[in-house]
Amino acid sequence: MRRPSGGYGNVIIHADYTHSLLGVALIAALSGLVAARVWSRRTGAVLGAVVFSHWLLDVVVHRGDMPILPAGMGGFPRVGFGLWRAPIASALVELALVLAGSYLYFRAATESERAAGGATSRTVHLAAGLMLASGIVTLILNVLGY
Predict the structure, then answer these.
(1) Can you spell out the DSSP letters for the chain?
(2) Domain extents for the chain?
(3) Each residue's pLDDT tens digit, 50-100
(4) Cβ(109)–Cβ(127) under 8 Å?
(5) pTM of the entire structure?
(6) Please, what's the largest Cα pairwise distance for the chain?
(7) I need a surface site. Which of 3, 8, 31, 145 has the fewest CB within 10 A?
């Protein structure tokens, strides 16, 4: 089994391309375009926004280790508000996000099934429950340093 890494939020990332503002904007746009082509424009817009929101949420918790441009080009300062410095507050914020995300998924899936003329299926309940459980387990493992 892997040993703890030193505690929750104690890692400075070195993802200079994927965690740069420009990098995530490109990944979000590409994800949105693919989803729009496969499903619908609305789905593409939502998926692109969700991908981009990851960077916005990371800015809140990360220490100043997230570049604006890939690999820190242009000499712009790295950003991050550092909520990880307060592990309890950070864990509570992440727990709130897991709960809110699971609820929003459940609500959207329920509305989609109702719009199609059916009742909420066991699959929706199972998927929402698995999303909630996996989010909580991931948070616990992060807090424990795994």
Answers:
(1) -PPP-SSTT------TTTTSHHHHHHHHHHHHHHHHHHT-HHHHHHHHHHHHHHHHHHHHHS-S-B-SSGGGGGGPPPB---GGGSHHHHHHHHHHHHHHHHHHHHHHHHHHHHHTT-PPPHHHHHHHHHHHHHHHHHHHHHHHT-
(2) 14-83, 86-146
(3) 999 989 988 998 888 889 999 889 999 999 999 988 888 988 998 999 999
(4) yes
(5) 0.72
(6) 55
(7) 3
